[in-house]
Specification:
The protein is α+β, with helices and mostly antiparallel strands and 355 residues long. It is built from 6 helices and 16 strands. The protein folds into 2 domains: 6-168 and 344-354, Diaminopimelate Epimerase, Chain A, domain 1; 184-332, Diaminopimelate Epimerase, Chain A, domain 1, CATH 3.10.310.10.
């Protein structure tokens, strides 16, 4: 007789991704046992036909949420990327899109109590041991998903979720510029390695014979490009304090070029081998941060505004992503104190998952 296990879940669209959200108490404490359940939940093959995944990295994501172990946070959040078609998971990176749904999930699941008008929730991001403040709209002390906020990569409008990331520098790699340089030359290519919430490698599209305006489908079909990016990624893993990254989804690889629609910079991001239809939240934060510093591969492309509070628009294949950076320019140095972004989220379903 087959033993069937049932687990409560919610499926939430967070930003331009969607994933399964679980209470930590509903999953095993043992990481290996937990990961096997998540693989079965999403689907182990490339089509994810026997699971709830959508056969795409953006829809093969998991959030595990529970009461926080930190006195200055409300909930703990572990992000899990289920790697499509490879029957494995990766907990190395964070995901700002899935994070955008954590506040709604915590309230819907009864972990926290909603306040009138809006509710501020401080999230301890276990993947990076950093904090993010989420502002969730809660009129009448209930989560609302209705509103006029539009984000590129998502049809329609919804209620805004304000995400204020606190001191993200070196979240995964241990330093904002983990190679200790603004620019490195690796395998004959100039790159900037940065981690302001997401380990990222920036490269000029022109150095690959590209305009930077190619569609994701065109780039994904360029086998020579994919092979070159992977060779760079594997070489840079140890340099970025990430070790052997063959089985990891970081660092993300990002081709940059001059903006085409009035933004700060244009991007094409790979996660890590497939070109993103848009750009990740923390990926956009890391790109925008790199643009602020002289001598990065982005510095000759961009025109950054002055001031201690700058709003920067990062262009991507289906629109743009706005990032607000709070800066400290004192003592002849530049520090990013806080990064603010606006996302939306929507509860799609809730029920019982059968493993």
């Amino acid at each position: 007789m087959i033993n069937v296990r049932s687990i409560p879940y919610m499926q939430i669209r967070g930003g331009s991704s969607k994933g399964l959200y679980f209470l930590a108490s509903d999953l095993p404490l043992d990481a290996d046992e937990r990961d096997q359940i998540l693989l079965s939940a999403m689907g182990r093959d490339v089509r994810q036909i026997d699971g709830l995944g959508g056969a795409d990295p953006l829809t093969s994501k998991v959030a595990i949420v529970g009461p926080s172990s930190r006195p200055n946070a409300d909930v703990d959040f572990l992000f899990v990327q289920v790697v499509v078609g490879e029957n494995r998971v990766d907990t190395t990176p964070n995901c700002g899109n899935i994070l955008a749904g954590v506040g709604a999930f915590a309230l819907e699941a009864g972990l926290l109590t909603a306040l009138p008008t809006c509710t501020a929730i401080t999230v301890n991001m276990l993947n990076s041991d950093k904090l993010c403040e989420l502002i969730v709209q809660t009129p009448d002390e209930k989560v609302t998903y209705e509103g006029d906020t539009r984000i590129d990569g998502v049809p329609g409008t919804s209620a805004p979720v304000v995400c204020n990331y606190l001191e993200l520098a070196g979240s995964v790699c241990g330093a904002l510029f983990p190679s200790n340089n603004f620019t490195d030359t690796v395998l004959g290519t100039q790159v900037t390695c940065i981690d302001n919430g997401m380990p990222l490698v920036l490269m000029r599209a022109s150095d690959f014979g590209l305009s930077g305006r190619e569609s994701p489908a065109e780039l994904n079909a360029n086998d020579e490009l994919i092979q070159r990016l992977e060779a760079l990624r594997l070489t840079l893993g140890p340099i970025m304090n990430l070790g052997d990254v063959k089985a990891k989804s970081v660092p993300k690889m990002c081709l940059i070029s001059a903006p085409t629609h009035g933004g700060l910079i244009n991007t094409r991001t790979f996660i890590p081998h497939v070109c993103h239809a848009a750009v990740g939240v923390l990926g956009a934060v890391s790109v925008a941060t790199a643009c602020l510093f002289k001598d990065t591969v982005a510095s000759a492309i961009v025109d950054v505004p002055e001031g201690d509070l700058v709003s920067l628009r990062v262009e991507h294949p289906c629109g743009e992503f706005s990032v607000q950076l709070h800066l400290d320019r004192s003592q002849n140095s530049l520090l990013v104190r806080k990064a603010g972004v606006v996302r939306t989220a929507r509860l799609l379903s809730r029920g019982t998952l059968y493993i």
